[in-house]
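Escalated from tier 1: nicotinamide-adenine-dinucleotide holo job.
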Amino acid sequence: MVKAAVLGASGGIGQPLSLLLKTSPLVDELALYDVVNTPGVAADLSHISSVAKISGYLPGDDGLEKALTGTDIVVIPAGIPRKPGMSRDDLFKINAGIVRDLVKGIAKYSPKAFVLIISNPVNSTVPIAAEVLKGAGVFDPQRLFGVTTLDVVRAETFTQEFSGQKDPSAVTIPVVGGHSGETIVPLFSKATPAFQVPEDKYAALVNRVQFGGDEVVKAKDGAGSATLSMAFAGFRFAEKVIRAAKGQAGLIEPTYVYLPGVPGGDDIAKATGVDFFSTPVELGPNGVQKAINILDGVSDKEKQFLEVAVTGLKGNIEKGVEFVKNPEAK
Ligand code: NAD
Ligand code: LMR
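Tier 2 regenerated the structure:
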């Protein structure tokens, strides 16, 4: 039996993500939580003739407790999205408190659940979640994930003309670092099957993966950021976490994790100098089975991108940790 919960289920990501989870045969029970509209979203999804039993909760009447109790996997897309001209860090002021409070609920009502954080800025909201779970004495780093799958999905899509794959997802491209601008580092040199990006196209391609989110924010022109592609990516990642928990082996996907707390993470922390980093991770029954270090043998250009990424990440991580220790300072 798998119970999944979506926190922020009525939003642009929350609704299509809940739809995908509702239609997945891997999910037996699906709880939707939001500050608005969950009764309607749940009623709508409940007419779908799939396995999952669906329920919707609002904050009143112990809604968060009811949504989280007995939950195996919690996905969090709660929080405000960007408008043109904003950085993901501009969302910190509002989203930091939202994520902190929701994770406090997880610590209390479903401390053993896998926690998948989508809310931006991911580079900081995942450290916030880690600090909250640590403070409550229930932090299991193998079960906390920052969802960076959309960067991988974009890298697969934007390189299709070079990889020559009919199905862009047939190529594996590790994207490492964080989830915002220059902290996103696609490692095309490590793609399998290997392909060549022409020299004169390389810089623009890296830039497009790093700033793909801005492309959508601009096109939506004030109506938010990526929602449908994010729901696809979030579901792809959640499905792998569930499949691995059920015993399927060999499932690997990059995700933003707390390196010192996961097997294989120490080497990567030493190589990068940061504690939180997105790296390909082999998933297992208990979450992160092994963080895979693919930084050896990257190209000189990729090394330069990684240096810039790490500098940005350090500040983002510190900001998240500091927010939990000293919330009044923000
Ligand atoms: P949205 O505004 O459409 O939806 C957000 C939902 O969160 C709303 O329904 C809102 O009511 C709800 N919410 C707000 N406060 C809440 C709380 N305290 N508890 C429960 N629910 C609450 O936004 P969206 O487009 O769905 O984006 C959500 C977040 O995901 C944003 O922060 C966005 O930047 C981020 N995002 C991340 C990625 C990624 O790759 N990780 C990709 C796209 C978007
Ligand atoms: C994305 O990468 O699309 C998301 O992080 C949303 C954003 O703000 O760009």
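The pocket of nicotinamide-adenine-dinucleotide (ligand 1) is lined by residues 7-8, 10-14, 33-36, 77-82, 91, 95, 98, 102, 118-120, 122, 147, 150, 179, 224-227, 230 (CB under 6 Å).
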